[in-house]
C-alpha cells in the first residue's frame, strides 16, 4: 500500500492512521488523529502541540525522529518523552493525566522508615550511571521485556556526560542494590526508570532523591504514568495543562548542569 506524507507549517510530517495500525497493532486501534512523523535529519524541528496527543493509546503524540540531546531536551521541556520497544520506531508520548511527585510531599511509611534505619544503605548520585541504566534495562519479575533499548541507553549516557541526566544509587556495602535515573532541567527532574535488587531499594532511592531536590528548591519530579508503587510515596496525578504550565515556569529557572557526585549545586 502506498503511504502519502503531508507537510505541515510546523515542519513535521503526518502519516495516515492506517499506517500506525499496521505498525503498532492493537494498542493503536483507537487512534483518531493523524500521527506526526518527525524528521530524523532536523532535531531542532518542533514537536506537535501536546494537546493533539491521542487519547487511546493515551498520550501518543509523534513517531520517528532521533534521540539526539537537542531533541530529547526539547521534548522534556514540553512534557514529552520517548517510549518504545526494540522493533518499533521511536514513539513520543504526552499522557493526560500526568503522574508527578512534588519533592516536599514525599511520603515515608513506617515500614520504609524502618528499612532506612536498619538496612545500612549508603546513597550517592552519579557514581554509577551506566550501571543503573543497565540494571533498569534488565528483565524483572512481571516485566520480561524491556523498553530501554541499546539506542536508548546510548542516548541517556550521552546526556549524562553532558550533565543533564543523573542517577541516584543505593548501595549495600559495595554492592549496587537499587537506583533510578532521569533528566534534570531547571528545577524539574524527569524520572525515567528505577530498579531494586534488595528490599525497598528503589523506593529509598526516590526518597533520597526527593529530599535532596527539596533542599535545592526543585518543584517537581515527573513520574510520567500512574503506578500504585508511586502513589504510596506521595505521587499524584495532575492534568496535562497544569503539568505543562509548571514546566513552562520551572524549566526556565537556574539549572543544575554537571555531575552531582559532590552534591546538587546550581550551575
What does this 3D model show about the protein?
There is one protein chain. The protein has 267 residues and is of the alpha+beta class. It has eight helices and 13 strands. The strands form two sheets. It has a seven-stranded mixed beta sheet, with helices on both faces. A six-stranded mixed beta sheet has the order 1-2-3-4-6-5. Helix 4 packs antiparallel against helix 5. It is globular. The chain starts with 5 loop residues before the first strand and ends in a 17-residue tail after the last helix.
**Range of strand content:** 15-25%
Count of DSSP strands: 13
Helix proportion? 25-40%
**Structural class determined from secondary elements:** alpha+beta
End-to-end C-alpha gap: 52 Å
Mean pLDDT across all residues, rounded?
87
Helices and strands, in order, run as EEHEEHEEEHEHHEEEHEHEH
Strand order of the largest sheet: 8-9-10-11-12-7-13
Biggest sheet overview: 7 strands, mixed
- What count of helical segments does DSSP give? 8
Rg from alpha-carbon coordinates: 19 Å
Fold blueprint:
Layout: E1 6-7, E2 13-15, H1 17-24, E3 35-38, E4 60-64, H2 69-77, E5 81-82, E6 91-93, E7 98-101, H3 110-118, E8 122-125, H4 129-137, H5 150-161, E9 165-172, E10 175-185, E11 188-196, H6 201-215, E12 220-224, H7 228-231, E13 236-238, H8 240-250
Keywords:
267 residues, alpha+beta, 29% helix, disordered N terminus
Amino acid at each position: 500500500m502506498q503511504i502519502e506524507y503531508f507537510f505541515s507549517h510546523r515542519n513535521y510530517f503526518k502519516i495516515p492512521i492506517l499506517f500506525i495500525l499496521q505498525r503498532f497493532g492493537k494498542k493503536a486501534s483507537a487512534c483518531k488523529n493523524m500521527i506526526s512523523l518527525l524528521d530524523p535529519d532536523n532535531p531542532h524541528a518542533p514537536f506537535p502541540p501536546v494537546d493533539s496527543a491521542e487519547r487511546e493509546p493515551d498520550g501518543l503524540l509523534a513517531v520517528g525522529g532521533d534521540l539526539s540531546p537537542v531533541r530529547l531536551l526539547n521534548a522534556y521541556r514540553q512534557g514529552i518523552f520517548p517510549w518504545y520497544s526494540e522493533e518499533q520506531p521511536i514513539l513520543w508520548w504526552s499522557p493526560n493525566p500526568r503522574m508527578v511527585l512534588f519533592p516536599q510531599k514525599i511520603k515515608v511509611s513506617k515500614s520504609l522508615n524502618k528499612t532506612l534505619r536498619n538496612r545500612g544503605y549508603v546513597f550517592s548520585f552519579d557514581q554509577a550511571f551506566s550501571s543503573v541504566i543497565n540494571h533498569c534495562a534488565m528483565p524483572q519479575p512481571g516485566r520480561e521485556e524491556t523498553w530501554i533499548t541499546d539506542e536508548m541507553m546510548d542516548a541517556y549516557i550521552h546526556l549524562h556526560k553532558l550533565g543533564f541526566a543523573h542517577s541516584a544509587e543505593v548501595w549495600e556495602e559495595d554492592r549496587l542494590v537499587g537506583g533510578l535515573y532521569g533528566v534534570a532541567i531547571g528545577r524539574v527532574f524527569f524520572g525515567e526508570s528505577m530498579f531494586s535488587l534488595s528490599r525497598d531499594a528503589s523506593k529509598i532511592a526516590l526518597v533520597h532523591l526527593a529530599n535532596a531536590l527539596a533542599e535545592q528548591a526543585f518543584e517537581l519530579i515527573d513520574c510520567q504514568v500512574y503506578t500504585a508503587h508511586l502513589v504510596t510515596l506521595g505521587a499524584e496525578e495532575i492534568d496535562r495543562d497544569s503539568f505543562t504550565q509548571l514546566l513552562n515556569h520551572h524549566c526556565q529557572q537556574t539549572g543544575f548542569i554537571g555531575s552531582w557526585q559532590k552534591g546538587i549545586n546550581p550551575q
